[in-house]
Specification:
Elements lengths: L5 E5 L2 E6 L8 E5 H4 L2 H5 L7 H13 L4 E3 L7 E5 L5 H14 L3
Antiparallel strand pairs: 1-2, 2-3, 3-5, 4-5
Helix pairs in contact: 3-4
């Protein structure tokens, strides 16, 4: 059985539901480009390489409990332990960190 169970979308982020962690908590993964702030995504993108942009997104996500997620089926992702009702708030908080430049 595939680890991907269901998909959820909030705003413009595509969250993919994956298997629960060892404690039974739900986990969702998204592509790091979905979490980049508007400024980085459209205005300053040419100043950074893809690995640099990924590292900035991971650092911002780490502040909120996000971790790197690399599998054959999903490369360059960030995984969060969260319930479906928390995803929109979580996305806004990560974007705020990236747009402040605190990543």
């Amino acid at each position: 059985m595939s680890p991907i169970e269901a998909d959820a979308t909030c705003e413009d982020i595509n969250w993919t539901r994956i298997k629960n962690d060892v404690n039974g908590n739900p986990r969702f993964v998204c592509d790091f480009t979905d979490l980049e702030g508007f400024t980085l995504r459209f205005h300053n993108r040419q100043h950074f390489t893809v690995p640099q942009r990924y590292a900035m997104a991971v650092r911002a996500a780490n502040q909120l409990g996000g971790r790197k997620y690399h599998t054959k089926s999903f490369g360059g992702g960030i995984v969060f332990q969260a319930y479906e009702g928390q995803l929109a708030d979580l996305a806004k908080r990560v974007r705020a960190i990236l747009e402040r430049g605190a990543a």
